[in-house]
Amino acid sequence: MTGASGGDGGSSRDGGGDGSPGRPVNPLEDPGFVAGLRPIPGDVTGSHITWPASDLSGTRPDGSTVSITLSEGRRPLLLVFLSTQCEGCDVFWTGLAEGADPALDRVEPVVVTKGPDTVDAVEVAALSGALPGTEVVMGDRAWSDYRVTGYPFLVLVEPGSGRILAETVGFRWTDVSATVTAGLDG
How many angstroms separate the CA atoms of 21 and 144, rounded? Predict the structure, then answer.
């Protein structure tokens, strides 16, 4: 997989333009991140996507193993690719924790982060602690399987068929509703 920038696929902590290490930056200011952007498809049949959805596996923030088998799912999965040190990801961590969006009632949200060798499992645990009932998968494989090069990124998957129904970069929380609507209501 080719990352958008940095070691974790779109790091928001870099030197920025002013040489200050560790300063969070807006993902839209990162040319590598912007280069990986893909819009919500106009044709919700997924015909633009040439690869199938795949099962997810990795570890939970507590270190236990997790596997999500698409053939066993009943509700569409909303894969939310996030990081902990990402200014643009905060709105998605918060939105999932609040769970007030009716779009979330139509899907099974799953947070996907890079593996524990790339992101801090303690930070992921702290953020995911506010997400009861939402599975968190830490692993690098899903990022390459779903061809995600930056975050936040949303992928809506039909579990039985393994079809990708919609995908988009998440700029704001309303992108969750837009992705669910595009994928399910077409």
Answer: 28
For residue 1, what pLDDT is reported? 34
- Give domain status of residue 68, yes or no: yes
**Are 157 and 134 a contacting pair, CB within 8 Å?**
no
Q: Is residue 70 within 8 Å of 63, Cβ to Cβ?
A: no
Domain assignment present for residue 176? The answer is yes
pLDDT, block means (10 residues), the chain with 186 residues: 37 40 55 52 49 92 95 92 93 94 95 95 95 93 93 94 92 94 89
Q: For residue 52, give every residue at least 6 positions away whose Cβ sits within 8 Å of its Cβ, in sequence order, or none.
A: 162, 163, 164
Q: The domain spanning residue 140 has which CATH number?
A: 3.40.30.10
Judge whether 19 lies within some domain: no
Cis peptide before 152 (omega within 30 of 0): yes
**Number of domains the chain contains:** 1
In the three-class reduction of DSSP (H, G, I as helix; E, B as strand; rest coil), residue 97 is classed as: helix
Domain coverage including residue 116: 40-184
Check: CB of residue 152 under 8 Å from CB of residue 118: no
User: What pLDDT does 186 receive?
Assistant: 74
Say whether 165 sits in a helix, a strand or coil. strand
Distance of CA 66 to the CA centre of its chain: 16
